[in-house]
């Protein structure tokens, strides 16, 4: 489940993370940079018996000063650790993925979703003329314009948001090629929210981007619910990705009551 999410995001965010890749001993190795620091994602493919060769060559590449793997899933951690017995590892809680039942988000039923249901009902009552539509080529430009507007308002507080604009542009330019689908909400005839992602197997879809006008009460809840209901009725689980350690985003994702978390780890090779 995780690697499908990662590859789409790597393409969309490749400029921000300065992404490079190579094939070594039949492993796909991906190097990224964040906050001026280089690290590798977990090796993909290859044979277990060749992992020591890869690790040795990466040590040499770093002048025998050690290096790091980030974003390692639990099964990959167990695969790597026998070949790096002296390595240290840590949980990367900020990058754990939140996974929900599609039916929970589509219905908002039960006491635990009482608050979200109230927000959704308030939105419908306040904006009875709102409309929901599937994202299609005819509205790519409108969605992009709203996404850029949303990002520009945030850019004063976080300069990295300029890369988010690039990622959203890449998504709409390559929407069909990336296998994306999503929905948008119009308020007063204008797009004020959208959500898109891709189905990665018969049971799971990952939602990569969700934007909504924060000044419209209940709009985030509405786009979340209506996309779950109308865009993703053919999956059991919705992966809404990580919270990046942002307190407000963490609370919002926790309040939607995930059924599981996809844990990720960092491995420090000496």
Task: Write a structural description.
With 270 residues, this protein is of the alpha+beta class. It folds into two domains: 2-95, Gcn5-related N-acetyltransferase (GNAT) (Aminopeptidase); 97-241, Gcn5-related N-acetyltransferase (GNAT) (Aminopeptidase, 3-Layer(aba) Sandwich). It has ten helices and 14 strands. It has helices at residues 2-12, 14-17, 51-61, 74-80, 102-107, 114-126, 140-155, 161-173, 219-230, 247-255, and strands at residues 20-24, 27-34, 37-41, 44-45, 67-73, 88-91, 97-101, 131-134, 180-187, 190-199, 204-212, 237-239, 260-262, 264-269. Strands 1, 2, 3, 4, 5, 6 and 14 form a seven-stranded mixed beta sheet that branches. A seven-stranded mixed beta sheet has the order 8-9-10-11-12-7-13, with helices on both faces. Helix 7 (140-155) packs antiparallel against helix 8. The longest helix has 16 residues, at 140-155. The chain starts with a helix and ends with a strand.
């Amino acid at each position: 489940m995780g690697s499908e999410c990662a590859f789409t995001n790597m393409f969309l965010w490749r400029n921000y993370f300065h992404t490079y890749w190579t094939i070594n001993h039949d492993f796909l190795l991906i190097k990224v940079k964040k906050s001026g620091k280089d690290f590798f994602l977990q090796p993909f493919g290859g044979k277990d018996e060749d992992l020591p060769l890869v690790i040795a060559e990466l040590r040499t590449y770093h002048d025998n000063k050690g290096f790091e793997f980030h974003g390692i899933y639990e099964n990959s951690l167990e695969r790597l650790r026998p070949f790096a017995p002296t390595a240290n590892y840590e949980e990367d809680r900020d990058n754990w993925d939140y996974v929900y039942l599609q039916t929970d988000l589509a219905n908002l039923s039960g006491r635990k979703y009482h608050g979200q249901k109230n927000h959704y009902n308030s939105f419908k009552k306040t904006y009875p003329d709102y409309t929901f539509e599937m994202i299609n080529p005819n509205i790519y430009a409108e969605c992009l314009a709203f996404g850029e507007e949303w990002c520009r308002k945030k850019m004063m507080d976080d300069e990295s948001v300029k890369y988010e604009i690039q990622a959203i542009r890449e998504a709409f330019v390559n929407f069909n090629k990336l296998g994306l689908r999503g929905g948008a909400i119009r308020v007063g005839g204008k797009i004020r929210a959208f959500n898109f992602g891709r189905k990665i197997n018969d049971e799971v879809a990952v939602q990569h981007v969700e934007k909504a006008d924060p000044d419209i009460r209940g709009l985030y809840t509405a786009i979340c619910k209506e996309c779950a209901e109308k865009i993703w009725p053919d999956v059991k689980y919705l992966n809404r990705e990580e919270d990046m350690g942002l307190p407000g985003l963490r609370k919002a994702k926790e309040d939607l009551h995930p059924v599981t978390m996809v844990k990720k780890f960092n491995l420090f090779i000496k």
